[in-house]
Structure formats: C-alpha cells, structure tokens
Amino acid sequence: MARAEVLELLGPPESSSDRGEGDRYYLGPSDSALPLDGAWLVLRFGGDGCVTEWTTTSD
C-alpha cells in the first residue's frame, strides 16, 4: 500500500520519522497491566513509498 493511500485511510500520523522508525498511529488504550499505556500502529515505508513493514506496540 502506498503512503498516499495510508494517508487517505488513516489521516496524518501522530508522529513520523525519517530515521526508519516509522509513522505512528494511536490506536487507543493498551491492554497492558498499566492503564496509562497507549497502543500504536507503526508503519515503515520503503524507497518506493510503499509499506514494507507494520507492527503494533505500546508505550
């Protein structure tokens, strides 16, 4: 999926990095033991502007 398609579906990311850390989208509260944690979708894009990797994480 191309970055333009991601932006159309999800809007702009909460944070973005040119250092390979990916674009982060907030999903909501995490299911972890600490209710203050947030769940995030992280997308990484290749040189062609298409998603090459995705993961979910919490902070």
A few lines on this structure:
By secondary structure, the protein is mainly β. 14% of the residues lie in helices and 39% in strands.
Shape, please?
elongated
* CATH class descriptor name: Alpha Beta
Biggest sheet overview: 3 strands, antiparallel
Question: Architecture in CATH?
Answer: 2-Layer Sandwich
Percent of residues in helices = 10-25%
Model regions low in confidence, pLDDT < 50 over at least 5 residues = none
Q: What name does the CATH topology carry?
A: Beta-lactamase Inhibitory Protein, Chain:B, domain 1
| Strand residues, percent | 35-45%
Q: Give the beta-strand count.
A: 3
**Order of H and E elements:** HEEE
**Number of helices in the DSSP assignment:** 1
Based on helices, strands and strand pairing, what is the structural class? mainly beta
Q: How many separate domains?
A: 1
Q: Order the strands across the largest sheet as they lie in space.
A: 1-2-3
- Mean pLDDT across every amino acid position: 89
N- to C-terminal separation? 26 Å
**What would you report as the Rg, rounded to the nearest angstrom?**
12 Å
Description:
This protein has 59 residues and is mostly beta strands. The chain has one domain (3-58): 2-Layer Sandwich (Beta-lactamase Inhibitory Protein, Chain:B, domain 1), CATH 3.30.1450. Helices cover 14% and strands 39% of the residues. The protein is built from one helix and three strands, in the order αβββ. The protein has a three-stranded antiparallel beta sheet, with no helix packed on it. The longest helix has 8 residues, at 3-10. It is elongated and about 40 Å long. It starts with a helix and ends with a strand.
